[in-house]
From TrEMBL:
GO MF entry, a single one: zinc ion binding
Protein name: Uncharacterized protein LOC117543330 isoform X1
Gene symbol of the encoding locus: LOC117543330
Superkingdom per UniProt: Eukaryota
Gene Ontology process terms (BP): proteolysis
Ubiquitin-like protease family profile domain location: 262-428
InterPro entries per UniProt: Papain-like_cys_pep_sf (IPR038765), Peptidase_C48_C (IPR003653), Zinc_finger_PHD-type_CS (IPR019786), Znf_FYVE_PHD (IPR011011), Znf_PHD (IPR001965), Znf_PHD-finger (IPR019787), Znf_RING/FYVE/PHD (IPR013083)
Keywords: Hydrolase, Metal-binding, Protease, Zinc, Zinc-finger
PROSITE patterns: ULP_PROTEASE (PS50600), ZF_PHD_1 (PS01359), ZF_PHD_2 (PS50016)
Biased composition (Basic and acidic residues): 169-193
Protein family membership: Belongs to the peptidase C48 family.
Residue ranges, annotated region (Disordered): 169-228
Boundaries of every PHD-type domain copy: 467-524
Length: 524
């Protein structure tokens, strides 16, 4: 239809109107100078050829042979819409093809070129072989999820390479309004087949409920039970506690110090199982969660338990490396920590600045609790004097510390000292700045229930995104300097992501995990 209109317009065009039409065409060409056709180098080349042909036709030497098939309108349409961009899709961009003649050296098949359409074909190859793993007839939901995960990973890798902020992944870009000529596609409703029972139709409607096929008894196979995390926190905790201890990160807790985090690994979370000794990382993590809950982060300094043990029981050479020169204790009203005694027992350390009292609270029954607190006060005094000598810091150096005793319940078994320490620390934070008289139940049944509550607190307070960061190092990039391209592998059961470097995978194991069914250390 468009060509017919061009032919009709050419036949009816008058000579006196041709100049006006050409003027309009020139103005249109000027407006299209910034389009793809206007920027194409072939547009100018074809214009030169066209002008030369017109000059040849109008010259005296040209043979005046009438062409019955001449249609200038078609030439204008081709030049306006096609000629400038058609070579971009042709083999013209392949260059001099004489390089492929016989006798030339054959190039390596893996050599990358910029031949036409090569990037599109390369992407199709990646989709077929690397993303979909040569699988065919995938359901739409499965195809979309695989493509989304791959593209999201490429976005993350691009952001890391160019040092871009991660929040741009969550940025919602506004969609332009739909133009008037772009109508939304709508499906016509199928007409009811009622009243047309006389003629048989070759179409049929599938049943709403499809019965599941029954497996014959002879080929009945015991199905492999796949552990799946339940949506609720109780089921997730039960699932984690049933697994063997691993080094997989299960929670990341925010710390009192800005820019620092506390990693809780699976083996550490499993120490909260009944009849287990709690690890220091779990106790310290619960301290930070409780301090945020009771709003004492700006009033009470949470001292690392390793540093606290060095202050009370270490020698001077160790004390220097734990002097904390960047901490100003004058900004706080108290210090809370805990220490490990004889490698098998936890005690609570509480330094109350307003009363100049140091409490070293023993969850078990002890007649030397006051003596231990006095010894701890003496060591605290020496610690602050060392800070003044070493760094010229005078905070709390003139305070005369003394030991004190705090009332508290006693543990009833040999493995719940860590749980009792956490309960006493929570009571101290809740009543701060007053010194509490701690009182709670310590039966074995209560301790078992309290262990589960503490584990749930850790999981609920976690800020770890297991679908974005590595589950071994909790970071986007593996530790140390390595290749700029990071190899990732995902568990097919729990869907956690891991760095191949963090798992010490060689190329053979990585390829096997990438193409086959792979379970992470937590799901094995």
């Amino acid at each position: 239809m468009y060509l017919d209109e061009c032919i009709l317009q050419t036949r009816d065009l008058k000579l006196e109107e041709s100049g006006h039409v050409m003027g309009e065409e020139e103005s249109k060409m000027e407006t299209n100078a910034h389009s793809i056709i206007g920027k194409s180098p072939f547009t100018q080349a074809f214009q030169v050829r066209r002008d030369q042909a017109e000059c040849d036709i109008l010259s005296d030497d040209a043979v005046q042979v009438k062409n019955h098939y001449l249609c200038p309108g078609v030439i204008d349409a081709l030049f306006k819409n096609y000629m400038g961009i058609f070579p971009l899709w042709s083999g013209l961009l392949l260059g001099d093809l004489s390089r492929h003649r016989k006798g030339t050296s054959k190039k390596d098949g893996s050599h990358k070129t910029r031949d036409t359409n090569c990037h599109v074909e390369l992407w199709f190859g990646l989709v077929k072989h690397s993303i979909l793993l040569k699988k065919k007839y995938l359901r739409p939901a499965e195809f979309v999820s695989k493509m989304y995960a791959s593209i999201q990973g490429r976005y993350v890798e691009h952001i890391e390479q160019h040092n871009l902020p991660m929040h741009i992944l969550d940025k919602n870009f506004g969609h332009p309004s739909r133009p008037d000529d772009d109508h939304e596609e709508q499906w016509n409703k199928r007409e009811s087949s009622a009243g047309h029972s006389k003629s048989k139709s070759k179409y049929f409607n599938p049943p709403k409920a499809l019965p599941n096929p029954k497996s014959p008894p002879a080929t009945k196979v015991k199905k492999r039970k796949v552990d799946q995390q339940e949506q609720d926190a109780q089921g997730n905790l039960t699932w984690l506690w049933k697994k063997k201890d691993t080094e997989v990160v299960v929670a990341v807790l925010p710390s009192q110090m800005k820019g620092r985090i506390l990693l809780i690994r699976h083996c550490e979370l499993c120490s909260l199982r009944p009849h287990q000794w709690l690890t220091g990382e779990v106790i310290e993590g619960v301290f930070h969660v409780a301090a945020d809950k009771f709003a004492v982060l700006n009033k009470m300094y949470l001292l690392n338990h390793y540093t606290a043990s060095v202050i009370l029981f270490g020698d001077r050479t160790q004390l220097i490396s734990h002097s904390l020169p960047k901490v100003n204790f004058d900004n706080y009203e108290a210090v809370l920590s805990f220490v490990l005694v004889n490698n098998n027992h936890w005690k609570l350390l509480y330094i109350h600045a307003n009363t100049s009292t140091v409490f070293l609270v023993d969850p078990a029954q002890s007649i030397k609790e006051l003596d231990d607190s006095e010894h701890a006060a003496k060591r605290i005094q020496e610690y602050f004097r060392m800070r003044r000598t070493r760094h010229s810091i005078t905070d709390w150096v003139d305070v005369k510390w003394k030991g004190g005793v705090m009332g508290h319940p006693l543990q009833t078994d040999g493995c719940s000292c860590g749980v009792v320490v956490v309960k006493m620390a929570k009571a101290v934070m809740e009543s701060f700045p007053l010194i509490p008289n701690v009182n709670f139940e310590c039966s074995k049944k209560y301790m078992k229930r309290e262990r589960r509550e503490l584990a749930l607190e850790i999981l609920e307070a976690s800020v770890f995104d297991e679908h974005t960061y590595c589950a071994m190092c909790a970071a986007l990039r593996p530790p140390g300097s390595g290749s700029p391209i990071t190899d990732w592998v995902q568990c097919d059961d729990c869907e956690r992501w891991y760095h191949a470097q963090c798992l010490a995978m060689d190329s053979r194991d990585f390829k096997k995990a990438e193409t086959g069914y792979w379970n992470c250390p937590l799901c094995k």
